């Protein structure tokens, strides 16, 4: 679902009809007991440079990987992204993606909603805030008992808060 011109919400879940994969699913999906916002992505042009700078600051974002898929209309999307199995600060520190020459998925996603705000809560506020600062990100984070990403989305029937 598009939430803006370059912002979208993607819902990912295991298919209970299929056998479990041999490797763990990305984003920590195998360990989830209930639905939640698991993580978020930030667009970056040079993922290897970003990864190197993060490593120098003690942040291991994981390897840069490649992905692709063909949309139903035949257009192939090709991207690079940091390893989705590496979730820092319980997913509060984002993953990074470069869409390259591919059209951004928000351009063809269902319209009608807007991301109003994104914030987070985490019990280790000081450490998580420092990680985000090292990456040049200004996500508002407050102290909370349980790590959580919180998105406020405006739609035709008003605002909803997703956690």
| Beta-strand percentage range | 25-35%
The rough form would be described as: globular
Total helices: the number is 2
The figure for the number of domains is 1
Gyration radius over CA? 16 Å
Number of strands: 10
Largest sheet: 4 strands, mixed
Arithmetic mean pLDDT = 95
Helix content, binned percent: 10-25%
* Distance linking N and C termini: 16 Å
The parts where pLDDT drops under 50 for at least 5 residues are none
Task: Tell me what you see in this structure.
The chain is mostly beta strands and 163 residues long. It has one domain (2-162). The chain contains two helices and ten strands; from the N terminus they run E-E-E-H-E-E-E-E-H-E-E-E. It has helices spanning 47-56, 125-134; strands spanning 2-4, 7-8, 41-43, 64-70, 76-82, 95-98, 114-122, 141-143, 148-155, 158-162. A four-stranded mixed β-sheet has the order 3-6-5-4. A four-stranded mixed β-sheet has the order 8-7-9-10. It has a two-stranded antiparallel ribbon with strand order 1-2. The longest helix is centred in the first third of the chain and has 10 residues, at 47-56. The radius of gyration is 16 Å and the shape is globular.
């Amino acid at each position: 679902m598009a939430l803006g011109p370059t912002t979208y919400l993607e819902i990912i879940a295991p298919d209970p009809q299929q056998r479990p994969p041999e490797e763990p699913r990305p984003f920590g999906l195998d360990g989830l007991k209930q639905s939640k916002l698991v993580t978020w992505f930030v667009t970056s042009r040079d993922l290897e440079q970003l990864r190197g700078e993060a490593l120098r600051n003690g942040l291991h974002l994981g390897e840069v990987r490649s992905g692709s898929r063909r949309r139903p209309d035949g257009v192939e999307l090709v991207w690079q992204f940091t390893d989705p199995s590496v979730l820092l600060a319980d997913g509060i520190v984002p993953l990074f993606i470069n869409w390259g020459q591919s059209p951004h998925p928000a351009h063809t996603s269902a319209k009608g909603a807007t991301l109003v705000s994104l914030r987070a809560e985490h019990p280790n506020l000081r450490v998580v805030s420092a990680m985000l600062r090292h990456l040049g990100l200004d996500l508002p984070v407050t102290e909370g008992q349980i790590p959580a990403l919180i998105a406020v989305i405006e739609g035709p029937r008003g605002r909803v808060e997703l956690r």
